[in-house]
Amino acid sequence: MMPLEEEVQVLSRVDILGPLSEEELRELLRQTPDTHLQAGATFYTPEDASEQLFILKKGRVRIFKTVDGRELTLTEIEPGTVFGEMSLTAQRLQGAYAEAIESSILISMSRSDLERIIEEKPQVWIRLVNLLSERLRSYESRLEDLTLKDVPARLANIILLLCEGEGVMTHQGIKIPHHYTHERLGTMIGANREAVTRAFTKLQDEGAIELRRRLIHVKNIEALRRAAGGLAPQDINP
Question: Residue 16: left (phi > 0), alpha (psi -120 to 50), or beta?
Answer without folding.
Answer: alpha
